[in-house]
């Protein structure tokens, strides 16, 4: 097989492997349709054994899915969930006032009733309650930055930032949330392994290609030098004649 044929074969192998993995990844993680998104299981977050834990709830899809999820969260654990050890740190009298989302979807905000301030003075419960709300909103909306405000004391008063009012920070809330094991879909581990394998094989083939090109370049340089030396010897012989 000629040098050009070897080079073409290596390049074709790299391209074929790349497209094969892309096709596999697309099969493993298909883009859900609107119907599938609407019927997909949704979760709210309660506490169990001192740790934040997700609980599946039947939440209606659509543009108000986040609002419905927060309403489900504010209901607290069901009787079965209580029997299973789930608890909530959100006062049961808290109500959802309204939600807002920035136009660029960089932040989702939730406004709650004044009852949420019953947590004032209890920093541990405040942190856990905020984590429940923030994680539930993040899960449904897909927006990482979540603001939480509380209605003002009197009608017409501006809302109060819940983080400041309760003495907790967004960093602390996110740290509380980070203790949750990320949910992985079935087969995602297989996709990761295949990605590593394909990547390793591609790297090997690329290394072979680079080695081949460097060797070819070296040989070409040697041939040129040999020709130049041969030419000098020929010219020398001619000069002697």
Question: What topology emerges from the helices and strands here?
Answer:
Elements: H1 3-28, H2 34-39, E1 42-48, E2 51-57, H3 65-74, H4 79-83, E3 86-87, E4 96-101, E5 108-112, H5 123-141, E6 146-150, E7 160-161, H6 162-166, H7 170-177, H8 188-240
Parallel strand pairs: 5-6
Antiparallel strand pairs: 1-2, 1-3, 4-5, 6-7
Helix pairs in contact: 1-8, 3-5, 5-7
Give structural notes.
This protein has 2 domains: 78 residues, no CATH class; 140 residues, no CATH class. With 241 residues, it is an alpha+beta fold. The strands form 2 sheets. Strands 4-5-6-7 form a 4-stranded mixed sheet. The chain has a 3-stranded antiparallel sheet with strand order 2-1-3. The chain is built from 8 helices and 7 strands, in the order ααββααβββαββααα. It is elongated. A hairpin with a 6-residue loop joins strand 4 and strand 5. 55% of the residues lie in helices and 14% in strands.
Order of helices and strands: HHEEHHEEEHEEHHH
Rg:
32 Å
Q: What is the number of independent domains?
A: 2
Q: Which of globular, elongated, flat, extended, rod-shaped describes the shape?
A: elongated
Structural class: alpha+beta
Helical segment count: 8
Strand content: 5-15%
Q: What is the mean pLDDT? A: 78
